[in-house]
Amino acid sequence: MTILYAIFVDPFVQMAGAPDLLVQALWDGLVSGVLYALIALGFVLIFKASGVFNFAQGIMVVFAALTLVGLHEKGVPAFLALALTVAVMFVLAVGVERVVLRPLVNQPDIILFIATFGLTYFLIGFGELIFGGNPKAMITDQLFLPRGVVDVPMLGGMVSFQKIDIAAAIIASLMVAGLAVFFQNTRIGRALRAVADSHKAALSVGISLNQIWVIVWFAAGLVALAAGIMWGARSEVSFALEIIALKALPVLVLGGLTSVPGAIIGGLIIGVGEKLGEFYWGPLVGGGIESWLAYFIALAVLLVRPQGLFGEKIIERI
Amino acid sequence: MGRTGYRYLAAAVAGCLAAGAVALPAAAAEDSNFVPLFTYRTGPFSGSGIPIANGMRDYLEMLNQRDGGIGGAKIAIEECETGYDTKKGLECYEAVKGKNPVMINPWSTGITLPLIPKAKVDKIPVLSMAYGLSASALGDTFPWVFNPPNTYWDGLSMIIRYIGEQEGGLDKLKGKKLGYIYLDAGFGKEPIPMFEQFAKDLGFELKLYPVAATDMQNQSSQWLGVRRDRPDYMVMYGWGALNPTAIKEAVRINYPMAKFISIWWPSEDDAKSAGDGAKGFKELNWHGVGTDFPVIKDIQKLVVDKGLSQVAKDKVGEVLYNRGVYNSMLIAEAIRNAQKLTGKKAVTGEDVRRGLETIDLTPARLKELGMEGFTDPLKLTCSDHNGHGATFMQEWNGEKYVKVSGPLKPMTDKVEPLVQSAAKDYAEKNTGWPKRTEVCDKAS
């Protein structure tokens, strides 16, 4: 009975007893969730357009942030460094299309997947060669990103909102909305959706696959840059960010690999779920459940909806 | 290129590889001693790994430049990148063990643990300096493993002693709440049995906040837990990206920094990144910080200024850089002792094991080494592979760490029984754990 009480009653008593902490956990979860969603979006964009599960998305987050900070360290003014980093991500997109995707076109998906492993190790080595392996501080002030905390008294307690978290939530939401509008309402967006539906059909109506791939990888690069800046500002720019990016995997399992709304909703569910789980139920097992809880949530959803929350149901005749 | 051309090319490549293979073990050269350094200049833990790697390498390189090595034998230094990954560490071990290494410095508790049973078999001593298995301080059970100058259990006992001093006596800890945030890996879990014992003996409540390696930069849940539980003191055993993130999060929730105390691993950068709010953050240390020591001056002059180091000049003298220097000083002393004991210039792992057991860093010897005032004397023996010396508390003042306490000695009466029982357990659980047969040298 004690165990049942600890699992099913006590956490809710705690929530009611200290609602400010519940709001804090929800807020922290939402911020993490938005950032997970941003990373997951990079995976989804590339998967939709090329059927490639881009294992390198995590390292692209590190590489983009490292390029920005590394250029600034070498004396480049912050906003010029930002523009140059955007240019670097574009060059990377073109390079990936020319060197990795184009020669492997028509190869089985698994070959392209493995190729992104190669890209991961290339970016790790190249990034370390140019900028070194030591962690760097994000140029938060130079980019006019806010610092500090806003403490709001509420519900008989205090809820702290980090200004950088507020900025992260706003910027990530704007980016997600912008990308959604871009891919829904523009000519390129329609072309992308056509490519996602059928490569052959898209080719037959004159859509250039190569051009679409460059655009999509570039968009994924921009998303990676935004995620890198935000995570970097919360902690530091280091190769540890790559492992955080792997948190996007359960988001994808949950939201579906092909769904932009799925990436967003999945990110939020995972972000909030893991924070509430760790905070209220973690102490029951000595803590540290956050690292696997996200996968547990995703698997639980898969039991009910194997295609994920928003993924396409694939029916194949066998 | 025709088929014959390819054959020639293949033969040439094979020839080059063979020549390389012959030339590779500079280690095995007659008048040199091979010192492999397991380092991590890449990956999530590079923030801690880079300064240590630089300090270790630069001290040994300085001996090569200044003295032509040790006792007339050059030091063959070879780094192997582990990324703080146990699997990679074991690959490094397999890669170097055939080259007659004088010892292994794993620089990871996770890598140290599987090397402990291998050390005796392969006759290669393991130096896990102030990390690794606390019980391996007992030379009678672990003749091939050394962990001076303090174990993680010693470290914890010194933190508890310090907290007791702040509260006006250890008895004042009764009814208090202590939080423990740690890397959820072998390293962070190591002090938990000791912590639980202290909680029982002194009557305080212990709250655990494990942080998985995947969440080192994502600790808001743990610190929300701290906000809820309101521990009177927070103790941290962190590494890599865990440390700066934890300090930032502590600042974010307005945790009183004066009551946030770490084991000896955070660097200046870890505290600096949290801004002014990090002032007052504390950690243990047992050696000097800064460049105002003859040994560091020699390194600057003979290695850094000559462009033989990878370190940025302004990083010389920082906590973890000097930690690396201390580690390599122990390596060098062990080699020197081994040379004295055997009369050989090029020594083996077996010889250096004896050299480690005869380390005796007296004040006079420390002065000779250019380390007067850098650290306390240290003496290892056949039965004591640790020394269990005193440390001190240092505090971050916004710019650098400054000493804020007198000597803090480990609580031997609490630690020793646990060390003895843990060593006994280890020997019992590892069936066939050999009894010590290694002879004890006189100097010991």
TrEMBL record, chain A:
InterPro entries per UniProt: ABC_transp_permease, BCAA_transport_permease
UniProt key word Acetylation: no
GO biological process: amino acid transport
A Pfam family it matches: BPD_transp_2
Keywords linked to the UniProt accession: Amino-acid transport, Cell membrane, Membrane, Transmembrane, Transmembrane helix, Transport
Its membrane topology: Multi-pass membrane protein
Cellular compartments per GO CC: plasma membrane
Subcellular localization(s) per the UniProt record: Cell membrane
Primary location: membrane
GO molecular function: transmembrane transporter activity
CDD domains: TM_PBP1_LivH_like
Transmembrane segments: 21-46, 52-71, 78-98, 110-131, 164-183, 212-232, 244-273, 279-304
UniProt record similarity statement: Belongs to the binding-protein-dependent transport system permease family. LivHM subfamily.
Protein name: Branched-chain amino acid ABC transporter permease
Organism name: Chelatococcus reniformis
From TrEMBL, chain B:
Pfam families: Peripla_BP_6
Signal peptide residue numbers: 1-28
Domain annotation Leucine-binding protein: ranges: 35-398
Swiss-Prot/TrEMBL keywords: Signal
Family according to the record: Belongs to the leucine-binding protein family.
Species of the source: Chelatococcus reniformis
Database matches in InterPro entries: Leu-bd, Peripla_BP_I
Protein name per UniProt: ABC transporter permease
Gene3D superfamilies assigned: 3.40.50.2300
